[in-house]
Amino acid sequence: MKSVLDISVSAFSNYHSTSPKDVNLLTWLYSDKYADKVLAIRELSDKKERDKIKATLPAVTPGGTFSERRATGLINHSGLLQFDVDGVQDIKTTKQKICSLPNVAYCGLSVSGRGLWGLIPIVEPAHHKQYFEFIQKAFASMGIIIDESCKDVSR
Question: At residue 1, does pLDDT exceed 90?
């Protein structure tokens, strides 16, 4: 059976890039190509320094393939909604709570090492924002606050 993560999405050379290229999401998620840079980011205590280096890393838009990095550039929705949880005090317990939810396809440590990031398949991509609001409430009921910017399919 094919993984829901074995799909094509857009990637950008860095946070500020607007020119996409298609990548396989499953391959991108499990690649260790940037592991050294990620580990260096995780060792920094200063958020501004972490963000500066983080902005140089490639970025993926798991919401789909895009002609440009904005919602209006959506070519094909991936059927995935991402979530981002920042400033997690207890990573292990929070990850266990998230993974106990049905349909969580991926949940991993964020680049900073201080949060969690993941993906949930959705049935009707046209209702991306409504799915986000539902998932936001489900997480909140467990005391987990997800980043509002994930409502944007092009994030």
Answer: no
